[in-house]
Amino acid sequence: MATAEATLEDSPKKRSKKPLLIGLILALALGGGGFYATFSGLILAGDAEHAEEEKLPGPLSGIAFVPLETIVVSLGPDSASEHLRFTAQLEVTDVAQADVATLAPRILDVVNSYLRAIDTESIEDPQAMARLRAQMLRRIQVVTGEGRVRDLLITEFVLN
After folding, report:
1. How far apart are CA 155 and CA 152, in angstroms?
2. Per-residue pLDDT tens for 82-106?
3. Is the distance from CB of 91 to CB of 150 less than 8 angstroms?
4. Beta strands in 83-147 (DSSP E)
5. Can you say whether the dihedral through the CA atoms of 118, 122, 124, 127 is positive or negative?
6. Can you give the pTM of this predicted structure?
7. Would you state the CATH architecture of domain 63-159?
8. For 12, which DSSP code?
9. Which residues does residue 65 pair with via DSSP β-bridges, in sequence order?
10. Tens digits of per-residue pLDDT, 40-91?
11. Which pLDDT band holds residue 29 (cuts at 50, 70, 90)?
């Protein structure tokens, strides 16, 4: 029996699972508490409100739009279409709106002359719209003077 007692004393004792269970419960409680504090705004609430205020745009000021009359340009006999219908608006600084509106007939003349002078292939090419727009905008800015017209917004460009 001495050998039986010796083997019992040599075998390791089972460890208690109590510390592991307490650690797991504490981790869940702290994780849940942290989630609640963040979700309810107890933590980092001031920074979130400040970030939302920065994202809001300021009042829109300093711009105005001047509509241009519709231009109908007849295309040549080698074109697949007969006519181009073109309508646009000019984005201008609000202080220059009256000046640009006064120059509208001259602007229409420049745009009409440009659209009649370019090749019909350029007009019919769908990828050429950006180039056409840039060319017309530059000509309009020359007529109106620098700093008055910001952009040319093409609202209708129809080939029929």
Report:
1. 9
2. 999 999 999 999 999 999 999 999 9
3. yes
4. 83-93
5. negative
6. 0.63
7. 2-Layer Sandwich (3.30)
8. P
9. 91
10. 878 776 555 555 566 777 778 889 999 999 999 998 888 888 999 999 999 9
11. very high
Burial class for 110, CB neighbours closer than 10 Å (0-12, 13-18, 19+):
middle
Position 21, amino acid = L
CB atoms within 10 A of CB 70: 13
Maximum C-alpha span of the chain: 120
Q: Exposure of 15 by Cβ count < 10 A (0-12 exposed, 13-18 middle, 19+ buried)?
A: exposed
- 116 contacts: CB under 8 Å, gap ≥ 6: 73
CA distance 108 to 146: 18
* Model pLDDT, residue 61: 86
Q: Which residue's structure tokens are 């440009």?
A: 114
Which phi and psi angles does 73 have, rounded to 5°? Answer: -110, 125
Q: Which residues of 122-149 are buried (b: 16+ CB within 10 A; e: fewer)?
A: ebeeeeeeeebbebbbebbbeebeeebb
Cβ–Cβ < 8 Å for 64, 56: no
Mean predicted lDDT score pLDDT of the chain: 86
Residue spans per domain, the chain: 16-55, 63-159
What are the structure tokens assigned to 41, written together? 């705004």
State both tokens at 85.
């219908």
Q: Cβ atoms within 10 A of the Cβ of 92, count?
A: 23
